[in-house]
Amino acid sequence: MEIKNVTPSDIELVLPLFDAYRMFYEQSSDIEACRRFLKERFLNNETVVFLALENDKPVGFTQLYKTFSSVSLQPFYVLNDLFVVPQFRKKGVGEALLKHAKTFCKKQGFKGLALETAKDNPAQKLYERLDWEKDEAYFHYFWKNS
Question: Which strand (E) or helix (H) includes residue 66?
Fold first, then answer.
């Protein structure tokens, strides 16, 4: 398996996976909107995307967004998206993507990686095995603009 750092010229490779990821979260398929979204993120230098390839076939991806901590005065990444094609799950693809993201973060000298997941997501075991710590001290709130 190869992990590739996605560039704007690689968007078409990750696009079907990104659309499938959104459909997993009950969004309608919209390849064109996904293409525009990803192009804009790359154009504005707002994203880092890693793509897992098995025999040159895209089988998973993760997407990071840069943010900052005012308290520690350090940048960190939000690991916002992680998706593995169903037939490649439990084969080390997600683990390889997470490890790659951690290595990238270390090389950048960033504070770390944050992620959030559903309470029933079985990937929690993987996150914890790879040294992500569950935050038991804070609640997370979200205001939705209607």
Answer: strand 57-69
Whether the model clears a pTM of 0.90, i.e. scores above it, the answer is: yes
* Domains held by the chain: number: 1
Q: Which two tokens stand for residue 106?
A: 């270390």
CATH code for the domain of 123: 3.40.630.30
Q: 76-112 burial by CB neighbour count: b if 16+ within 10 A, else e?
A: bbebebbbbbeebeeeebbebbbebbbebbeeeebbb
Looking at residue 40, its amino acid is E
- Tens of pLDDT along 116-127? 888 888 888 889
- The amino acid at 134: K
Is there a domain that residue 145 lies in? no
The strand pairing partners of 113, in sequence order, are 77
Measured in whole angstroms, how far is the alpha carbon of residue 124 from the centre of its chain?
A: 14
Task: Give the rounded distance of the alpha carbon of 67 from its chain centre.
Answer: 14
141 three-state secondary structure: coil
